[in-house]
Every structure is written in structure tokens, then in C-alpha cells.
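cron nightly-structures :: item 1 of 1
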Amino acid sequence: MRFVLLFCTLFLTDLDGARAQAVTDPVTEIAGSNGATISAALGTAITYQGKLDKNGAPLNGTCNFTFKLFNDPTAGSQVGPTVTISNQAVSGGYFTATLDFGTNAFDGQARWLLIQVQGPGDAGFTTLSPRQPITAAPYALYALGGPATGSQWANDASGINHPGNIGIGVQSSSGIKLRVDGGTSENNSLYVHNNNVNWATFVLRNFAAGGFGIFDDQSSKHFFSGRVGVGTVAPDGKLQANSASEAMRSTS
């Protein structure tokens, strides 16, 4: 008993060979009865379509399927949960299935789909080979690495990064990597906090010899409600400065 997957596609039909396409858009637009456009957030499910032959003829009936997502065409690790679909209708070999591998299944890295099928009268599942590559649709590629009108963020080993300069509340500047402007509204332009005894809330380092760690020639006041230590990480007063080679002095 031999199954053959003649084609598979995500959201598209009439693809020859064994190709698959993934389309991931955060928002879908639905036309209301009055002609207005309604925006609705999409979930993480994708639509999968395929055509099966069994023993050289298009299959008709109901089948049981399992779908597994992998990060390698032959080995690798499974990504997300196994999706099981029972009593899936197959007509003329054609079937459509909704697959949900979770929020983090598609992060820009290559993915392959392993499909197992149990047809009418079959005692068990047959694994279809080879695994099907999930290739990117044109607009998904545009959104992932497009120009300024698309996303400029990229995945890296620790999270995401932005190669250029960023402006929040203000236009980005060529000489400032991150520029934040709260304007005159009642808010704090930048608020950073944590709740860990072993890690600092904010770290400033300048590795250049003689380089500034902090420079402010505009503000008229700075406020610290806690203790400040210079040369010590455990000040026992409002201001404590420790140094083996330098004396503390104040000038005005």
C-alpha cells in the first residue's frame, strides 16, 4: 500500500512537485455588511492543502493525519506540538487541514513538515517522505527583511536586534543609537527597573580611555532617593566614596 503526496501548499493551490508555502500576517481585514473594513487579529493557525494518491489513484474517503514541524529536512528537533487530525475528508485526493504549531513555531528559520497518514482500511500510519519544506511567500519575505516600510528587526542568538538608529517620540538621529523624547507630557522619558539583588538595573560603560560614562551639561538637578557609592557597591551612607589612590574633593 503506497501513499504519494502529489502536492502540498499553505494558502495556495495548483503547485507542482512537493512544495509548501507559509503565509503569516498579523492582521486580516474583513469587509463588513456596510462596506466598512474590520481589522481582526489573526491567531497562529495556518491552512494546509494537499493531494494524495493511494496505490496510483486519487484517494477518496476519510483519513487520520499527524503533522510535525522540524528544523531540519531529515533529522533535527521537532518545533511545537504534534497536530493530530482525525476523520479528515479527502475527495479526489484533495484535503485541507488547519495546523497550529504555536506562537514561536515560525521565527524566520527554515522549517520542514513531517506528515503521517492513515487511510481507509489501513491498520496504522504511513510516514510520507520526504519532509515538506515550508517556503516563504513573497510578502512574508518582504515583511521580514524589507525596506523602511517593512520590518528592520532581525533575529539573533539572544533575541532580536536593529542595525540602525532608533527614535522614540522623536526622529532618529545619525549620532545617537537610541533617542527617546517624552516631550512636555507628564511621563518619564525612560523608566528602567528590575527586582533582582544580584544584577544592576542600569549599566553604563565606556571602554575608551578617558571616555565619559555620563555627560549632562543641561539639567539643573539630579535626584537620588537611595544611597550613592563611588568605588563601592555597598555604600553605608547617602554618599560614600572609596579609593586607594585618589582623594575625594569638591570644587565649585
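cron nightly-structures :: done
Residues 194 and 201 are 6 Å apart (CA to CA).
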